[in-house]
Amino acid sequence: MKKTLHDVKVEGKVVLVRVDFNVPIKDGVITEDNRIKAAIPTIKHLIEKGSKIVLFSHLSRIKEEADKAKKSLAPVAKRLGELLKKEIKFIPQTRGAELETAIKSLKAGEIVVVENTRFEDVANGEVVKSESKNNAELGKYWASLGEVFVNDAFGTAHRAHASNVGIASNIKESCVGFLVEKELSALAAGIDKPAKPFIAIIGGAKVSDKIGVIDNLLKKADKILIGGGMAYTFFKAQGHNIGKSLCEEDKVALAKEYLAKANGKIILPVDSANNTDFKDSKATFSGVDLPDDMMGLDIGPKSIELFKNELKGAKTVVWNGPMGVFEMENFKVGTVGVCEAIANLDGAFTLIGGGDSAAAAIQLGFADKFTHISTGGGASLEYMEGKVLPGIEAIKNK
Ligand code: AMP
């Protein structure tokens, strides 16, 4: 078990916090500030404890010197100040005298926001990836600026960067923040110690993106319901005609292997909502053998019923990936149906593992009805694959 904020002494100390302030910014204006808000419980706790707080975050990607002008964390620091009703000192640098002096002059409860950590990926016009490739000197330097490290950025936990793994490996004391703690306990309850029956629902475009997840969940789940574009590769593996649907030819053999080893655990759709092309107009329906000129874009009504029945009585449900092209009005029905069915389950632990399914649930207004919606797409996917998350692994154990 990793240390949490309850396990470390932060009173009066210089506390370095890796937060996830990677918010969408358009023309210098933050269009959505949920991630800033999500970091506030940890920051408030540190303010109350009288810590001297130094916040690190990346913002988007920096591929060349010119990116830096548009990707400063300055507007984020300003927004944080508004949310906390508190003055925040923003340092437009990622290292150097100005930053060091600002940290040294911090008083209890005061906050410094460091410039976008990924500015370190490009130095003097050269791509060096010091942050993204966890440059040893950079992690050591950042760690030297404080006494305790708190990782509260779940979204980057699957990456070994200087601002998470680098700092954590070079500092005496570290722990996870409240946000990461919540993510980890939800994922543990959903994946590691699931109450049974445990039903997983996997969808999305490609089998290749979800191989690790299917592999790991085959060991843990009682049933895996498969929908979305990836279902058609499975139909092909069963010898069906999938028309013009999405198919990964090089994964057909693997799909066959999964079906054999799943021993009935994998439940596939029984019908399909189709269109002649990848476009949003009225669906026509077929069974799992599609006419040659049709493309499957959603699961059909019989499959929705089948999946609903399979979900009855589930005690743990983990969902990752839409059942169809939910961005299209005519092909969101399967995703809505499944989302609704999970949301309405009584007494079940329900978890959405990030990405498109999280977006779908929020957009459809079901967000409050799930036990947990993970915020970290890549990180939660890797957790579901049973992989170790380096950003978490580097934190001290209890
Ligand atoms: P993923 O990021 O792997 O979860 O995939 C999500 C994407 O898969 C969404 O943008 C969906 O539109 C797309 N998708 C789902 N079902 C299908 C399908 N039957 N054909 C093509 N794309 C699909």
Largest beta sheet: strand ordering: 5-6-4-1-9-10
**Biggest sheet descriptor:** 6 strands, parallel
Provide the residue-averaged pLDDT. 95
Find the count of extended strands (DSSP E, 2+ residues). Answer: 19
**Structural class by sheet pairing and helices:** alpha/beta
- Small molecules bound in the structure, each named once: adenosine monophosphate
* Rg result: 23 Å
CATH topology of the largest domain: Rossmann fold
Given as residue ranges, the uncertain stretches (5+ residues, pLDDT < 50) are none
How much of the sequence is in beta strands? 15-25%
Number of helical segments with 4 or more residues: 16
Characteristics:
398 residues; alpha/beta; Rossmann fold; six-stranded parallel sheet; 16 helices; binds adenosine monophosphate
Brief sketch in words of this structure:
With 398 residues, the chain is α/β, with parallel strands linked by helices. The protein folds into two domains: 5-180, Phosphoglycerate kinase, N-terminal domain (Rossmann fold, 3-Layer(aba) Sandwich); 194-384, 3-Layer(aba) Sandwich (Rossmann fold).
Q: Could you please describe the fold and organization of this structure?
A:
The strands form 5 sheets. The chain has a 6-stranded parallel sheet, with helices on both faces. A 6-stranded parallel sheet has the order 13-12-11-17-18-19, with helices on both faces. α7 links the parallel β9 and β10. 36% of the residues lie in helices and 17% in strands. It starts with 13 loop residues before the first strand and ends in a 5-residue tail after the last helix. It has 398 residues and is of the alpha/beta class. It is elongated, with a radius of gyration of 23 Å. It has helices at residues 34-38, 40-48, 67-70, 74-84, 97-104, 136-144, 162-169, 178-192, 207-220, 231-237, 252-262, 301-311, 333-343, 355-363, 377-384, 390-393, and strands spanning 14-18, 25-26, 29-30, 52-56, 88-91, 111-114, 122-123, 126-127, 148-151, 173-176, 198-202, 223-226, 266-267, 272-275, 284-286, 295-299, 316-320, 349-352, 372-373. The chain folds into 2 domains: 5-180, 3-Layer(aba) Sandwich (Rossmann fold), CATH 3.40.50; 194-384, 3-Layer(aba) Sandwich (Rossmann fold), CATH 3.40.50. The protein has 16 helices and 19 strands. The model has no long low-confidence stretch (mean pLDDT 95). Bound molecules: adenosine monophosphate (AMP). Adenosine monophosphate binds next to β16 and α14. Adenosine monophosphate binds at residues 204-206, 209, 228-229, 246, 296-297, 321-322, 324-325, 327, 355-356.
